[in-house]
Amino acid sequence: MTIKTTVVGSYPVPDWLAALPSEQALTDAMRVVFKIQEEAGIDLVADGELYRFDIDHPDTNGMIEYFVKPLGKVRSALRRADVAQFRRDQGMSFRARPSAVVEGPLDEGTLDLPADCRRARALTRTPLKFTLTGPHMLCKTLLDRHYGSRPELCLALAEILAAQVADLDAEVVQVDEANLPGHPEEAEWALAGINRVLDAVRTTPAVHLCFGNYGGQTIQQGTWQKLLAYLNGLHCDHVLLELAHRGNWELPFLRELSPKIRLGLGVVDIKSNVVESSDQIAQRIEEAVQALGEERIAYINPDCGFWMLKRSVADRKIRALVEGRDLFAGRK
Prior knowledge:
- By secondary structure, the chain is an alpha/beta fold.
- The protein has one domain (4-67, 126-136, 149-331): Alpha-Beta Barrel (TIM Barrel), CATH 3.20.20.210.
- Helix content is 38%, strand content 16%.
- The chain is globular and about 60 Å long.
- The termini are close together.
């Protein structure tokens, strides 16, 4: 069995794309992102999420606003009272403003993830991963004036995302949840929402979980041990976890992960500009294999997306990821 390599999703927005954005420039930039991964030897590539970046919301890199602003019955023009109400929610203290306000029963509006996936699919022949933000994090960033409870809002978002996911043409569809690890008390209703989305995936469903990243800072605290019941309840093939930045001390807890769920092992620290050596990455893989068994590891990957790093650093970390995997494979 060969452990495969993949990335989590995002890539640094090229300066020239931000300076002069256009559909052609976006397509060219996505070609570059794919080419960098392909030349490095990444087995499962992602499109870099470049089309989602919103310069007005750099704190979440478009992983929120891109999904909620197109929805029907959502108001993105915020009033002072909206902001004041949202700031009273301590669970979302890293955001100063809500992403939008829900004013009625949600519908998909103009959101069109299948079109995004078709654009990416046309630019690479390598196995493709398509990523999207999960319903738990999306509902946490919204100010709800209709549903009356977060579980209900989460399920409404899940239904919309599931309908979109059912039309995606990608070898792997990955749902990202970056707020839940810091709020394990919400795991039960969050699980119902994400599984609705995962069940709609026609190919291979995956989940990415992390503790957040902004400027190299961890956004929230928590442990994987507190999320074991949630992890074991996921309807997915594999789950990508942040481990490199945290250290491998949590590996023993992951032995309790259900055998039906494989791991995407975080072996590249995206909160650091230091580029890992192939030896370091091979050692992290070896530690995980000793603790869990090689058959449990589907992929090695970065802890999270690369969007906050310089391109030169991200590119070298991508190459190191493959070189470390190859070194580990050669040592067996």
